[in-house]
Amino acid sequence: MITVNHLRKTFQTPRVQEGKFAGIRTLFSRAYTEKEAVRDISFKIETGEFVGYIGPNGAGKSTTIKMLTGILHPTSGEVLIHGQSPQKQRKRVVGQLGVVFGQRSQLWWDLPVKDSYEILIAMYRVEAATARRRLGELSELLELKEFLDTPVRKLSLGQRMRADLAAAMLHDPAILFLDEPTIGLDVVAKRNIRGFLKTLNQEFGKTILLTTHDMDDIEQLCSRVIVINHGQIGYDGSIDELRERIGLPTMMKVSFRGNIRVPAQWELPFRVVAKEGNLLTLACNRQELKAMEVLRVVSDWGDMEDVHMEEPDFEEVIQTVYK
Ligand SMILES: Nc1ncnc2c1ncn2[C@@H]1O[C@H](COP(=O)(O)OP(=O)(O)OP(=O)(O)O)[C@@H](O)[C@H]1O
């Protein structure tokens, strides 16, 4: 279990001096600007959960992940991973964590991929037979064989991400922290990575915290989402609940055979957004109104042929929370 209690992080940066010799004076000045990157965040993540940690640029996501992994020290508050602090009991906690920063590889740039793995296997003291078996499994799941002998700098972005994910799993951690693991990837590569993450969570029971700007990642993978904005939690719950709470309208496209006669007014709270030829676009909030009730009204307006429903796009829902 991951427990985060009243976590805060304030960065201090030297205040830039103005005028003559500004550079030198900034260097020796004691004036600082404070930036509260994370302000009083608390949450719990149970074993086996797949949680999306999302927010706009500069919201404090990476800062949180760096505190969860022990890279950064909180200004106040605490993180506990299975009851232990990644800052105070670093060695013990690190063995339970796998970390992937999509923007930065943890592999050695000029070495063949498999040499990086050997170094990591030695660092984590994974027993030789276990390491061989695990690498075999990861190689199959992530299709690594074709580039195990290639230096990391020569890999495509998709290959590099697969190589990094395998590296994070070599010591078989129970928890994975992923910061933008699909950034810059094409559709096929994204699908492969998502498939792998789904397997890790559903078949191997790994607990995963995923940071991403790709809302498809979130929708396809996460059962729960934590939204952070200006260093504070704005929402923590299921995606469906979030959609409902925001209450963006569902769009119904109804096609008719022949003419449509839209009356001046009707009883129920739905809107006609567009009328183009024999196609009518309606907006209704499904919390207030069932689709069937809308259709019962609309069936009097002409000879209904077909109905198509469009749920609000998750991207739109999220943009509404970020505002
Ligand atoms: N080392 C640092 N020193 C000073 N300020 C920092 C430092 N690291 C982050 N910040 C600031 O803290 C805030 C949160 O940054 P953070 O990188 O956690 O955001 P993020 O949500 O990960 O953003 P993005 O989606 O753009 O990666 C930003 O305003 C950032 O400029």
Summary tags:
Rossmann fold, 4-stranded antiparallel β-sheet, alpha/beta, single chain, binds adenosine-5'-triphosphate, P-loop_NTPase, 2 domains, ABC_transporter-like_ATP-bd, Alpha-Beta Plaits, 6-stranded mixed β-sheet, 11 helices, ATP hydrolysis activity, 323 residues, ATP binding
Model description:
- With 323 residues, this protein is α/β, with parallel strands linked by helices.
- It has 2 domains: 2-244, P-loop containing nucleotide triphosphate hydrolases (Rossmann fold), CATH 3.40.50.300; 247-322, Alpha-Beta Plaits (2-Layer Sandwich).
- It contains 11 helices and 13 strands.
- A 6-stranded mixed sheet has the order 5-6-7-3-8-9, with helices on both faces.
- A hairpin with a 2-residue loop joins strand 11 (270-276) and strand 12.
- Helix 5 (128-142) runs antiparallel to helix 6 and helix 9 (239-246) crosses helix 11.
- The radius of gyration is 25 Å and the shape is globular.
- 31% of the residues are buried.
- The model has no long low-confidence stretch (mean pLDDT 90).
- Adenosine-5'-triphosphate binds next to strand 1, strand 2 and helix 2.
Secondary structure: helix percent = 25-40%
Query: Do you know the CATH architecture of the largest domain?
Result: 3-Layer(aba) Sandwich
Question: Which runs of at least 5 residues are low in confidence (pLDDT < 50)?
Answer: none
Strand order of the largest sheet: 5-6-7-3-8-9
- Global mean pLDDT: 90
Beta-sheet strand percentage?
25-35%
At the first level of CATH, what is the class of the largest domain?
A: Alpha Beta
Q: Which cofactors or ions or other ligands sit in this model?
A: adenosine-5'-triphosphate
State the fourth-level CATH superfamily of the largest domain.
P-loop containing nucleotide triphosphate hydrolases
N-to-C order of helices and strands: EHEEHEHEHHHEHEHEEHEEEHEH
**Main sheet summary:** 6 strands, mixed
How many structural domains in the coordinates?
A: 2
